Model the fold of this input.
Amino acid sequence: MSRLQVVSGKGGTGKTTVAAALALALATKGKRTLLVEVEGRQGIAQLFETEALPYEERKIAVAPGGGEVYALAIDAEQALLDYLQMFYKLGSAGRALKKLGAIDFATTIAPGVRDVLLTGKACEAVRRKEKSGRFAYDYVVMDAPPTGRITRFLNVNDEVAGLAKVGPIHNQAQAVMRVLKSRETAVHLVTLLEEMPVQETADGIAELRAARLPVGRVVVNMVRPAVLDATDLELVRETPRAALARSLSGAGLGGARRGGHAERLVDPLLAQAEEYAERYALEQEQRSVLTDLGLPLHELPLLAEGMDLAGLYELATELRKQGIA
Amino acid sequence: MSPDPAARPKDGARRLSHARVLDVDPLLEDPKTRIVVCCGAGGVGKTTTAAALGLRAAERGRKVVVLTIDPARRLAQSMGIDSLDNTPRRVKGVDDSAGGELHAMMLDMKRTFDEIVEAHADPGRAAAILGNPFYQSLSAGFAGTQEYMAMEKLGQLRGRDEWDLIVVDTPPSRSALDFLDAPKRLGSFLDGKLIRVLLAPAKVGGRAGMKFLNVGMSMMTGVLGKVLGGPFLKDVQTFVAAMDSMFGGFRTRADATYKLLQAPGTAFLVVAAPERDALREAAYFVERLAAEDMPLAGLVLNRVHGSGADRLSAERALAAAENLEDPRIVDQTGGKAGVRNSPDTHGSSQAPESPAESSASESPASESPASESSAPDSSAPEASPTPSPEDDVPDADTPERSVDQLASGLLRLHAERMHLLAREQRTRDRFTARHPEVAVTEVAALPGDVHDLAGLRDIGARLATGEPELPESDV
Done:
């Protein structure tokens, strides 16, 4: 099991949710995980219903069985200042650099530097050891940028190598790449059973593979329950409307005659079934596209009440059940 | 819960009661509308919305160009264009009977940047800039370059004045606000102190104040050199020197585009789906646009679900479904009995299995409840983690299902739909409470993706009606 778990996915697929559920799942049985956020969105804080996370590792949840989940919102600017402090003992010069716009330049404009700092911090947490020799964190889970940008984000070496050919940023990039391309890392992609996210997942996997980054699993999120199967849907089309009306009426939903309450329900219910059938067929199609990718495939249910903290634990349990953690 | 389904207020479960309705047609038809900007979180159908609006405006007689920035080239697919490059292409198959045209283009940010350099520097200097490694990374890689170039391209298109209406899709940014911020950020970098330091370290000390003198400018560049690596810094310095004459231009153009976005001919549409995160981001955007004096036309709410049977609540539907699955609960021939007599909808189906004395009249293939496999646990069918429908296959010796079983399936499907509606309603209400002034148009959820102009046209029609089309009317 790789110790750095990177979670990406198309926008709107719930990658932050899956990353958080994974961090919880991996923390079970007394393990300690660190959930890191790199895009400054405070999505983790919202999910765990806590105040905004500072640039500091902080315990945010206790997993079943006594494990702990820590969270960290990595801020590139702060990471760079720390880094300068660590290596150059800059003191007030760091502030001066900031005033000058140099920090802003390095973290937002200079291509790739920001990504090196963000991935670098995550890799540092992966490698960090306590005095006892035990790893500070058993697993580090990263809520990473979306599929469209993930390869570029992780492949910092290529980005920076052409520019920073020597110096600490260069060395840092090398060290980061050693972790990211090793078996210590697995990149998971979150998708929905819809055409565009599935296509983007397939493209993302091809890009990751071309960059020799380790692809992990595909997680299908928000899978709706199968209420009717293909046979049912076929039968629905063949069943006389009057019979359905009688059946609904028998269940206490009003009169079966023309114009009766039960009779008037038949059309809308059948229309919903048609819609369901169309979506069902599309989902089956997308499911088979995903199966053809040849990666371990996991499905997480759509939570009826929307996403909340209880739901997060539910998803974590589901991930464990499916052997992902 | 009202005992009689007919007594429920018709729209109570579903509609936005207080929100204003956004009417997109007058907006698209008004010759004074020159720019429509679609913004919002990723994955809410922004690109599709932009394309659908462009098509609708074109078919209502306007000469439209749609500028998309999304690298996934989805717009290209839905418009049947194989490759969108950095120049607008006419879209075929558009109904031009009203005299309109539709053009579409996809932003190539590197190309756009190159064009600026080529247009503003003499050939020798342009070649030096284009070949500089720092420039090459900056133009292709910097997260803000895309946003900056999108705004630059918008300014160019507007400047050409060839189109009545420009519809812009915004980049899939880290945050929906990046496209407002990035141009300023890049502009302030290109104009900023750092640039001057890099150009001529010695000159700046006096202006930047005593603090900098203490540290020493050469040390500044020294530190930058150490961190980034000497050659990198040299690339930056060469780049900066070559770009020197153009910096003022960048700032000026960024400012001009920004003003264009505040101008009366511009309308912002915030696109969202009725989901918590998307609407949270939408609310944030609404507030930000107001703070920037940018004209918001309204909110496009995509993927809204409706039901033609919304008077039948989820609870009643589930209770009725249970009645049908377990004939012991109610005398099936009674017709009127049922729900009201069995308020315990959660526990009733858990009754111990016993051979049912099936007296049901219209269920010839009626089986004992044990064979009913499509209803795992009636208390929470939505949360059922059933990973794949294949696991849900009925017993092999149950080749056919009774009408009752089908009806119960339909009712469970309906209950699921009603739960979804209620959740969407709660999310929307939260937004409306916070921003009652924002006009909203709703677009019904489609089962599949949009692939062609017909699909876009359909979305456009849904955008214009402002209310989700009920499944009822599809029949």
Observations:
- The mean pLDDT of chain A is 88.
- Residues 261-291 of chain A form the longest helix (31 residues).
